[in-house]
Write a structure and sequence with these properties.
The complex is a heterodimer of chains A (about 325) and B (about 240). By secondary structure, chain A is mostly helical. Chain A has one domain: ABC transporter involved in vitamin B12 uptake, BtuC (Orthogonal Bundle), CATH 1.10.3470. Helix content of chain A is about 75%, strand content about 0%. Chain A has 15 helices and four strands. In chain A, strands 1-4 form a two-stranded antiparallel sheet. In chain A, strands 2-3 form a two-stranded antiparallel sheet. In chain A, strand 2 and strand 3 form a beta hairpin. In chain A, helix 2 packs across helix 12, helix 3 runs parallel beside helix 5 and helix 7 packs across helix 9. The longest helix of chain A is centred in the C-terminal third of the chain and has 27 residues. Chain B is an alpha/beta fold. Chain B has a domain of about 130 residues: Rossmann fold, CATH 3.40.50. Chain B has a six-stranded mixed β-sheet, sandwiched between helices. A four-stranded antiparallel β-sheet of chain B has the order 2-1-4-5, covered by helices on one side. In chain B, strand 4 and strand 5 form a beta hairpin. In chain B, helix 7 runs parallel beside helix 8 and helix 8 packs parallel to helix 9. Chain B is globular and about 50 Å long. The relative contact order of chain B is 0.18. The chains are: A mainly alpha (about 325), B alpha/beta (about 240). At the A-B interface, helix 7 and helix 8 of A face helix 2 and helix 3 of B.
């Protein structure tokens, strides 16, 4: 599919999904849907750096919470429309992503991951001690109850997050099919060889950290309006990082479909567990699923489907061969 | 116009461990120069210094490309590739999970090479017909010899003037080593390349080399002005090349 066609299809699917969601019997579906969509954005964003270039980022919560806290800070300063806040959250987290990349991308493997984890801790400490945005007490956000045209504010939040999900997936897909994507894959396969072949590895990695960070920040920006009360402990919750890593791993990291499937699957399961049993169960579910997938399908659902299809094809070929071998050999006609 | 390479007084170290000391060598236009020595003597480090992957602690490295002189120390690797210097790394270092074609395209990542992408791809596939058959195959699933050919082709995709080859014989059967070395010679002749080849397989390297340097413990121990001179030096053969 050409990139333009894909964008149009993605937008159409998004619009159709929104149209369908308006049939929902009550507001809860928007509440739950918002979280799943938020994880689609986070997982896709994580995958741009973690899946395409192979750099595992444990600092998802930092970028996410920075987006959220930039909304809190601006809310106190001057009220802005939500899409603008999303954009600003993205810029803030993107700049932090660029800075983090510049400081840490000379580290590889586990060392890079530890550095990103440290970033999350540092950011949380800074925000906890910044009184203007509420410090450790947290901050309250008053949101309008109704929005023109859409009705309840939660529907509006849902729509914004749906648009973000479409944008994130569109970006991920375009990267995959571009020269940038090839460069990322080369870094993932063998970074030194990529460098020796003339791929500008540092620059590409900076593009990845910036894009990934910006999308995470955008996913976080509407959060204060969603929860209406935000404190550092919930904004910087480790669950965001764990989920955003688990979802692409469960879905499959090499294509945009993986994080999408993973986020829908895991996000929905978690929402179901929250209403039926308890939200305390969520991390346990993630852990068990992750262990299960590492054992059964190390390349995620996408990889599992691909290998099943290959096996089916192989069986077909085998059957053909058996049938052919049962038939008598054609005899040479006498001349 | 041909291109050449000058190294003078190059020293390099990994932390406190000195790997190269005062290495001075020259590759003249259109020459094939062999860099000989056994494991751990600094051949690969020297190649990496030229490519800007390892930064030397002293000395200067310069390349003259089509009549223009460039100082290479301090330049980034991608800028050096852009000048027209390409590396076939030790152990091939392909991208195993990408296809043959994608591997080749990654050799032409820089803007200069991209402008001539189609041309270069056609000429690589012509030089290596085997790769044309396997365009869509994953690089990691090919045999060692085919992978070495792909590594050579990938380096050619940047349309280089100077080709650096680091240990082309690693992990190949003797027959394939011979084949690879012949191929390097063939490519050099048809594209007027200047070649610097690090190699420990003395007999094979000397077949195509015009001259050679023997490197021992990071220093140039012997500079042979012709292949014959290297071949005739009994001491060098015995003590440094283990023959």
């Amino acid at each position: 599919m050409r990139p333009l066609t894909f964008w149009l299809v993605a937008i159409a699917v998004g619009a159709a999904f929104f149209g369908l969601s308006l049939l929902a019997p009550n507001q809860y579906y928007f509440q739950a849907g918002y979280v799943v969509l938020q994880y689609i954005v986070l997982a896709t964003a994580w995958n741009i750096l973690g899946g395409y270039t192979g750099y595992v980022n444990f600092g998802v919560a930092a970028f996410f919470a920075l987006g959220a806290y930039s909304t809190v800070a601006l809310y106190k300063l001057l009220p802005l429309p939500l899409p603008l806040l999303v954009l600003i959250g993205g810029v803030v987290s993107g700049v932090v992503g660029l800075g983090m990349g510049y400081l840490t991308l000379r580290l590889r493997g586990a060392f890079f991951s530890i550095a990103t984890l440290a970033l999350a801790v540092v950011m949380e400490t800074l925000i906890t001690n910044w009184d203007y945005v509420g410090g450790s007490r947290g901050a309250y956000i008053l949101r309008p109850a109704q929005v023109p045209l859409l009705g309840n504010y939660i529907v509006y939040l849902f729509l914004v997050m749906l648009a973000l999900a479409v944008i994130a997936i569109g970006i991920a897909r375009s990267i995959e099919r571009s020269r940038l994507g090839f460069g990322f894959a080369a870094i993932r396969d063998d970074e030194q060889a990529a460098e020796a072949a003339g791929v500008p590895t540092l620059r590409l990695k900076l593009v990845a950290t910036t894009l990934s960070g910006a999308l995470m920040g955008m996913a976080g920006a509407p959060l204060p309006y969603y929860v209406t009360y935000l404190d550092p402990a919930s904004g910087f919750n480790l669950a965001y990082a764990v989920n955003s890593i688990a979802m692409p791993l469960i879905g499959g990291t090499t294509s945009w479909v993986g994080p999408l499937i993973g986020a829908i699957f895991l996000g929905t399961v978690q929402q179901l567990a929250t209403v039926t049993i308890s939200s305390a169960l969520n991390l346990l579910i993630v852990g068990l699923l992750l262990v299960g997938f590492v054992v059964i399908a190390p390349n995620g659902i996408v990889g599992l489907v691909a290998s099943l299809r290959a096996a089916m094809r192989a069986r077909g070929v085998h059957r053909q061969w058996k049938r052919a071998s049962r038939e008598p050999l054609p005899r040479e006609s006498p001349r | 116009m041909a291109s050449s390479l000058f190294l003078s007084g190059v020293g390099a170290a990994y932390g406190a461990v000195r790997v190269l000391e005062d290495v001075t060598l020259e590759v003249k236009p259109g020459e094939t120069v062999a860099l000989l020595g056994t494991n751990g003597n600094g051949k690969s480090t020297l190649i990496k210094c030229i490519m800007g992957i390892v930064r030397p602690v002293s000395g200067s490295i310069a390349a003259e490309i089509d009549g223009k002189r460039h100082e290479l120390v301090g330049m980034s690797t991608e800028a050096i590739v852009d000048l027209g210097i390409a590396l076939v790394p030790e152990g091939r270092r392909l991208f195993p999970k990408l296809t043959v074609e994608e591997n080749l395209l990654l050799g032409a990542f820089r803007p200069l090479a991209r402008a001539r992408l189609k041309q270069n791809l056609a000429y690589c596939l012509e030089a290596f017909p085997r790769l044309a058959e396997r365009r869509k195959q994953l690089a990691g699933s090919m045999s060692g010899g085919e992978q070495q050919m792909l590594a050579l082709a990938r380096a050619l995709m940047s349309a280089p003037r100077i080709l650096l080859v680091d240990e082309p014989s690693v992990g190949l059967a003797p027959l394939l080593v011979r084949h690879t070395i012949d191929k390097i010679k063939e490519l050099k002749d048809s594209y007027q390349l200047t070649v610097l080849m690090a190699e420990q397989n003395f007999t094979q390297a000397i077949r195509i080399a015009d001259r050679g340097y023997v490197i021992v413990h990071g220093k140039i121990a012997f500079a042979g002005n012709s292949a014959q001179e290297l071949n005739d030096n009994e001491l060098i053969r015995k003590f440094y090349l283990g023959m």
